[in-house]
């Protein structure tokens, strides 16, 4: 009996020592959104998959903050094997910020705030020989989009057409963009976008609006009609430096189907906006 109690006490000491070591290790807070297909209205299964995707997205954000984009791209397979398949090994805790089914898109969305063991992640990155990032330009996008027939704007980010295209174009050029839906965190005001971005510890925030409508005949010059998208975006520094850049684009795209024309027009405008903002974003250095 005494030997059994001695073994139990020894195990407790080891567990407490491990917990103390984990709590003392450097951690970082990351907000991420996970999305999963909603199959046969099985909300529980879709939620679980979305949660797992959110864990992985948070871990990818942590890795992206540490590494040079081109080196990261070359090492994706190694990272999948060593890190991304078991994200919970590097997450100390998390809390769900939002979750809801998105029937129009046939998906379930879960937003989390995860506390990640960045020191452990950093060791894996170094062991794989991935080049470290010299200047991590973390950026968040807050867009309000209005579509034909809507009387109010829709706050969107990773699920908005313009924001998704902006994110894709900027990430391709080495700008680290957070993937999240700030519709749950943002009330549409520029000042609140800055406040939320500071909480997310990003350096730059893009705030803007977009709308799409049937183009006037003079602008369309197409027998079948066209869609007109107007996108206006400001780049603001979260350190108080003010506006870095601004771009407004008016794109007109002929269409055969209305919804397809909306997407094409918004996408083209967003591509042009990203190209105009990129020089200022890449030249910006925090504190200057």
TrEMBL record:
<feature type="signal peptide">
    <location>
        <begin position="1"/>
        <end position="24"/>
    </location>
</feature>
<keyword id="KW-0732">Signal</keyword>
<dbReference type="InterPro" id="IPR038180">
    <property type="entry name" value="FlgT_N_sf"/>
</dbReference>
<protein>
    <submittedName>
        <fullName>Uncharacterized protein</fullName>
    </submittedName>
</protein>
């Amino acid at each position: 009996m005494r030997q059994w109690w001695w073994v139990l006490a020894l195990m407790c000491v080891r567990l407490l020592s491990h917990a103390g070591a984990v709590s003392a290790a450097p951690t970082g807070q990351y907000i991420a959104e996970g999305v999963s297909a909603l199959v046969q209205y099985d909300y529980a299964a879709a939620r679980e998959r979305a949660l797992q995707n959110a864990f992985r997205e948070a871990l990818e954000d942590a890795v992206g903050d540490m590494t040079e984009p081109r080196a990261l791209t070359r090492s994706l397979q190694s990272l999948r094997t060593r890190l991304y398949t078991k994200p919970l090994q590097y997450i100390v805790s998390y809390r769900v910020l939002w979750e809801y089914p998105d029937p129009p898109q046939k998906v379930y969305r879960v937003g989390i705030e995860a506390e990640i063991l960045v020191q452990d992640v950093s060791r894996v990155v170094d062991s794989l020989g991935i080049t470290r990032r010299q200047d991590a330009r973390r950026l968040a996008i807050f867009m309000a989009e209005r579509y034909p027939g809507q009387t109010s704007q829709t706050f969107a980010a990773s699920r908005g057409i313009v924001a998704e295209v902006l994110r894709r174009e900027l990430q391709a050029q080495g700008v680290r963009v957070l993937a999240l839906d700030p519709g749950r965190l943002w009330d549409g005001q520029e000042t609140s976008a800055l406040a939320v971005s500071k909480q997310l510890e990003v350096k730059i925030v893009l705030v803007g609006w977009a709308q799409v409508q049937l183009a006037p005949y003079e602008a369309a010059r197409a027998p079948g009609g066209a869609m007109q998208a107007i996108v206006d975006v400001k780049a603001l520094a979260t350190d108080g430096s003010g506006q870095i850049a601004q771009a407004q684009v008016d794109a007109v795209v002929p269409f055969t189907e209305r919804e397809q024309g909306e997407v094409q027009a918004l996408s083209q405008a967003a591509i042009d906006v990203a190209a105009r903002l990129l020089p200022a974003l890449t030249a910006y250095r925090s504190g200057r």
